[in-house]
Amino acid sequence: MAFSTTTSCNSINTMTSFSSPLQCLPPTLLSKPWKNLMVNSRNSHLRIVVNSASSDMGSSNSSDLISFRQRNMPSFGLTSNDDGTTKPSYKWQRVLLKVSGEALAGDNMQNIDPKVTMAIAREVATVTRLGIEVAIVVGGGNIFRGSSWAGCSGLDRSSADYIGMLATVMNAIFLQATMESIGIPTRVQTAFRMSEVAEPYIRRRAIRHLEKGRVVIFAAGTGNPFFTTDTAAALRCAEINAEVVLKATNVDGVYDEDPRKNTKAQLLDTLSYQEVMSKELSVMDMTAITLCQENNIPVVVFNLNKEGNISRAIKGESVGTIIGGQRNSAAAEVP
Predict the structure, then answer these.
(1) What pLDDT, in 10s, does the model give residues 156-182?
(2) CA-based, 20 to 30 A from 47: which of 16, 24, 109, 217?
(3) SS3 80
(4) Could you give the 3-state DSSP secondary structure of residue 131?
(5) What is the pTM of this model?
(6) Using CB atoms within 10 A of its CB, is residue 234 exposed (0-12), middle (13-18) or buried (19+)?
(7) 17-58: per-residue pLDDT in tens?
């Protein structure tokens, strides 16, 4: 029995979107004998692969097919354990991790601390193996910060910012090498062409890399002066349809006061975008916060230096401060 114009073919492979896997099967097919039924869902897109048995192999009724689905397919929004039980899926499936240049410097003994990049790589590897798609935006403040050098020796702000963009490319290539050394397929995409060392930023290509399980590192900011890498993170997050910006810093989150000046400063668990702007909290620049607000992108601020924090943040567990979102009490536990 075949479902295509080629008589030797005995399978259907179709990509479409349905609220239920059975909706994509014509009612007349439910009475046909099935050899195998596999359903894989992600973000409401179902890939159905049906292998048909030949007509002389006997018949099975639709109740057999339904009972097979009930035994083997978890409910939507849940994942199966090895023992057949179900557990909540991770809060986010595609995330953007923002790593500042200062964080890459570690103890500031050198521009880039290999221990920091290796720690980032190992934690990202842990979550990518769970099927979570990870994109990264890196800063360049550990090498050159344009806003600090503007005006020095006749250096205008635009030129200084372009130098800072080149610094982010250096960090991105270093981080890519570290990740690939432990087996994580990684691509670097730059906002302006540097084809000898990295791919140019192409939105559809970046999304395809993520879908194939690769980590994508975005470098050179937005490619325009006067915009920070925080703004680049918010922009790329919106473009690739990521669900959250995870901002890795050297502090535990957002405090009501500067913890370096006031030892009694309180760590805030949640904040709204309006509170960040009205209180002028130095979390991200206002352009980045506004972009996140307009696109309903939550921001999680957490400490990069605490082991396990990156993987916890990516999995949606309670860590640091969340801006413009809510904690998910049903987030999956660390396996």
Answers:
(1) 999 999 999 999 999 999 999 999 999
(2) 217
(3) strand
(4) coil
(5) 0.71
(6) buried
(7) 445 555 555 555 444 444 444 444 444 444 444 444 444 444
**What's the alpha-carbon Rg for the chain, to the nearest Å?**
24
Select the more confidently predicted residue: 50 or 151: 151
Exposed/middle/buried for 153, CB within 10 Å: 0-12, 13-18, 19+?
Answer: exposed
Find out whether 274 and 292 touch, Cβ atoms under 8 Å. Answer: no
Is the CB of residue 97 less than 8 Å from the CB of residue 300?
no
DSSP letters of 276-314?
HHHTT-TTS-HHHHHHHHHTT--EEEEETTSTTHHHHHH
Judged by DSSP in three states, 125 sits in helix
Nearest of 38, 48, 52 to residue 17 by alpha carbon: 48
26 phi, psi to nearest 5 deg: -60, 145
Long-range contacts of 12-18 (CB under 8 A, 24+ apart): 12/48, 12/49, 12/50, 12/52, 13/47, 13/48, 13/49, 14/48, 15/45, 15/47, 16/45, 16/46, 16/48, 17/44, 17/45, 17/46, 18/46
* Tokens found for residue 325: 């979102």
Between residues 56 and 259, the one the model is more confident about: 259
